[in-house]
Design brief:
The complex is a heterodimer of chains A (about 200) and B (about 475). Chain A has about 200 residues and is of the alpha/beta class. Chain A has a domain of about 140 residues: 3-Layer(aba) Sandwich (Rossmann fold), CATH 3.40.50. Chain A is about 25% helix and about 20% strand. The longest helix of chain A is centred in the C-terminal third of the chain and has 24 residues. Chain A is globular, with a radius of gyration of 15 Å. Chain B has a domain of about 110 residues. In chain B, the strands form six sheets. Chain B has a four-stranded mixed beta sheet with strand order 8-7-6-11. Chain B has a three-stranded antiparallel beta sheet with strand order 1-2-3, covered by helices on one side. The longest helix of chain B is centred in the N-terminal third of the chain and has 33 residues. The chains are: A alpha/beta (about 200), B alpha+beta (about 475). Chains A and B meet through helix 3 of A and helix 5 and helix 6 of B.
Amino acid sequence: MPECAGDTAPNGGSPERADGHGARILVLGYGNPGREDDGLGPAAAEAIEGLRLPGVRTHVNVQLSVEDAADAAEQDWVLFVDAAQSGPEPFQARPVFSGGETAYTSHALSPERLLGICEQVYGRQPRALLVGVRGYAVGVEEELTARARENLDEALRYLRAVITRAAGLGAISRRRPDRSSLVRIPGVAARAGEYL
Amino acid sequence: MSTSVEGRGARTIVIDPVTRIEGHGKVTICLNEDGTIARTRFHIVEFRGFERFILGKPYRQVPLIVERLCGICPVSHHLCAAKALDVTVGADRLTATAEKVRRLMHYGQIVQSHALHYFYLASPDLLFGFDAPVAKRSIVGIIAEYPEIAKWAIQIRKYGQEVIKATGGKKVHPTSAVPGGVTQNLSVERRDALRKDIDQIIAWSAEALALYTRFFRADAQRHAEFGTVASNYVSLVRSDGAMDLYDGGLRAIDADGRKIFDGLTPIEYTAHVAEEVRPWTYLKFPYLRAVGRERGWYRVGPLAQINCCDFIDTPIAERARQEFVGQGHGRPVHLTLAYHWARLINMIHAAEKIKDLLYDDALQGTDLVTSGTRRAEGAAWVEAPRGTLYHHYRVDDRGQVASANLIVATTNNNEAMNRSVARVAQDYLSGREITDALLNHIEVAIRAYDPCLSCATHALGQMPLIVTLQAPDGAELARRTRA
């Protein structure tokens, strides 16, 4: 797992900003809603979908797939939301950049590798954050645990802050985002950890 | 992948699991003392159990349960179950909207599944060569070295998934087919979104076929010989002889193209097809009763679909079919690797059918479900991406499933896969050093038929599994039986 960048959001002063165009933002929540807290990612995406925020699309998947790269490559920002099996509560966030190996079966893909596919196939990659919402149980149930639900509420507040900030930036013209395009959001806890 | 050497005298080489096959298979090659191959078997080591655990479930839940058999072709199980249960609710003729929504979903499934099978799982062998390093021969390698082809792969598969979502509510496990019809039509908004890209999808599919035929011609000898076996073929065919992947009568032809039967209805299926159980695998061995157990085995899937039909009713695919059948010189095309060729023709056909349906106003109709006099029994079939899929249910007076029988494409191809694997083993492994590259030739043969084994294994408890190690003289070295 790459180094944690702490609490991150788009840098309002970035020279990459393209005035006059709204940012395209994709919230990609993944996990298995049939396995209790593993459904945190889809629950987050569905909650954001319910807000009907302008310029924001959502997508739910059990796991990341190669086809998600086609959607991701069209975005300025992709906010990956997954459940975190361990690590800090209520959630953790870190920027994601292209890299990593694709699992040989192509069944499971990391956010880093998905961004790499964006770059290799479509010639561009969006800026991206991975938000890992802390979960506690992965039994065969369709409900989130109460503690996970509380963490989800906190994560949703963070995601809304990120979306508001990103939307204000407009479209991104630079081909390869890097760490300089990220800044901290004060008061939001976000640290690296393990992800489900 | 692992290789092991066991026993005294006879050495057994085990390839387990077979990579880039979804699910698990096992191939056992029993060698003689002199290193030649005594026997080759392709094993199925998973069991399915769906027929058992849907017993007692309300019949309306069945299309939603059985689609969980498979992550690659769930739509086929979803639709086949709904079709079989149409019979039990007396829905002998669906509304035009329901019929066309289901067909559209099915063609979306064909497109996405064939794109996955060909581009993700099979094309690495063709682009990098059968002997290339395993790590390179994957979709990862394609993305790195052939990004344009990777784009075709991603966009074509994604389009198929979008068709499924538009008609079934979800990309992977749709929910809209119910006994007697569907629960939704195709909205104008979704129709218009799909219309925008369909011409590009057809064009990319045609380019993929052109690329494949270049591979074929560049290495025609290997394509002609690799795992090739002459066989009978079985597929659905429309009443006028056209290829029909969603419905129709069942046609069987022999290795010379002569009809064995034609126009079979689903309820007649088991009268014409029997299943043999062998103790070393969970997968049964179907055969045509009229031909007999020894010679009645057959192949299903894209190769069979094109060999069996008289024509294809979409123009680009029909032109491609005519070129394809020329390879048979008056007989069916028996080349095992030509499964991929046929698969791409069918992908084009499905994309062309999608385009036709997207301009059919019946898809926006609102009459979605019909019913009639209840029956206790229903059977149906579809041509799933891997071949003929058959579902047969009995429903009791309380509306609960009393019995179920699912015969999937992989089962239909079981004997053929074993023979192709044996042919490849004879051609590439006998008397040679056992290497990963050589072993991969066996996987290439299996992948021509099927990337998916998880749905093909039978009900828990119905079939014994016996593992036996034999010496060259037939003496049993070890045995383990699982009841």
